[in-house]
Amino acid sequence: MSLLTDLINLNLSDTTQKIIAEYIWIGGSGMDLRSKARTLSGPVSDPSKLPKWNYDGSSTGQAPGEDSEVILYPQAIFKDPFRRGNNILVICDAYTPAGEPIPTNKRAGAAKIFSHPNVVAEVPWYGLEQEYTLLKKDVHWPLGWPTGGFPGPQGPYYCGIGADKAFGRDIVDSHYKACLYAGVNISGINGEVMPGQWEFQVGPSVGISAGDELWVARYILERITEIAGVVVSFDPKPIPGDWNGAGCHTNYSTKSMRNPGGYEIIKKAIDKLGLRHKEHIAAYGEGNERRLTGRHETADINTFLWGVANRGASIRVGRDTEKEGKGYFEDRRPASNMDPYVVTSMIAETTILL
C-alpha cells in the first residue's frame, strides 16, 4: 500500500506527458499570494504559450460579487520545486475581462517603465535583500523565543550558529535550495540581527525580472513554512522595542553607473531620489514608520541622507564603488513588505526618466 509521501512524490513523466502548472498571483491586500493548479498537455517554457485563466476576485478582495471574474495573464515561468519533474510555477498578473489591469496589478505599470527605450538602454540591475521573521504558528511569536518572553539582547544572532542563536535554519536552507532549483537568481542567505529573523538576496536581476523572482521566492518560502507549520512574517517591525526591524534593501545600478565615471552618475541619481523622498517613502511599504526611526541601522523616515558605508543612511554607497569610481548604491528605505514591482520601477523612473 502506498503511503501519502509516495503519492506526493510520484514522477508523472513515467506515465504521461501532461504537467501541472501552478498559477500564482497577488491578492487584494497586496501581500497575500494566491495560487491554483491546472493540467497542461505537455511541457511549456514560454509564458506566452500558456493559456490565460480566471479566478473569483470577490473572494480575494479584488472584484465585486456581481462582476467577480478576474483574468490571469501568465508572465514568467519557474520550475516547481515541490512537484518537480516538468511541472512549473507561473507568475501571473491580473486584468479585467476587458483587458485592463486591476488596481492591485502593480506589474503592468512597472512593465511600462521597464519597456521605455531610455530604461532599456540603461539595463538596470537590482539586488534585493529580503528580510523576514519566522513565527510560531499558534502564538505568532518569533521562533526560538520563550513563549510570551524575550531572548537575550541582540548581538550574537547576526550570522550566528548554534541551537541558542539560529532558529529555523532547516526552513532557510530548504528555501535556498528550492529557489536555486526553481531558477530564481538567489544569491545568498544569512541570519539577521534579531533572533528568528533571516534574509535572502535575489539578484543581480535585470528590470522586471527582479520583481518576478522576488515574488516567486516569497511564494516558495510561504509554501515551505506551510509544510513546516511555521508562519513567515514580512512585517517591517514585528516586535516593538529594542529589536531590529525588517527591510528589503534595494541595490541598484545602471549601465552608466557601472562604466568608468559612473560615480558621478550615482551621485546625480541620489540627488534625484532625495527630491522625491516623500513619494518614495509612501510607496516603500506599509508600517515603515515603525521601522525607519533613526535607530537600528535606519535613517529617520522624514530625513533623506546618503553616505559611504553608512548603514544609518537612506542611501548607502559601498567603499568599493567610491574607490573604483563606478558601481552601484543601496536604497535602505524599502520595508520588508514592499512590492518589488513598485520599488524597482520607481527607482528606475526617478533616476532615468525624470
TrEMBL record:
Instruction: State the source organism's domain of life.
Output: Eukaryota
Q: What is its EC number?
A: 6.3.1.2
What Pfam families is this protein classified in? Answer: Gln-synt_C, Gln-synt_N
Q: What InterPro entries does UniProt report for this protein, alphabetically?
A: Gln_synt_N, Gln_synt_N_sf, Gln_synth/guanido_kin_cat_dom, Gln_synth_cat_dom, Gln_synth_gly_rich_site, Gln_synth_N_conserv_site, Glutamine_Synthetase
User: Which ranges carry the GS beta-grasp domain?
Assistant: 19-99
Keywords assigned by UniProt, alphabetized: ATP-binding, Ligase, Nucleotide-binding
Where does it sit, as one GO cellular component term? cytoplasm
Q: Which residues form the GS catalytic domain?
A: 106-354
GO MF terms held by the record: ATP binding; glutamine synthetase activity
Query: Its Gene Ontology biological processes?
Result: glutamine biosynthetic process
Q: Which PROSITE patterns match?
A: GLNA_1 (PS00180), GLNA_ATP (PS00181), GS_BETA_GRASP (PS51986), GS_CATALYTIC (PS51987)
List the catalysed reactions: L-glutamate + NH4(+) + ATP = L-glutamine + ADP + phosphate + H(+)
Family, similarity comment = Belongs to the glutamine synthetase family.
Q: What is this protein called?
A: Glutamine synthetase
What is the species listed in this Swiss-Prot or TrEMBL entry?
Escallonia herrerae
Lineage, broadest ranks = Eukaryota, Viridiplantae, Streptophyta, Embryophyta, Tracheophyta
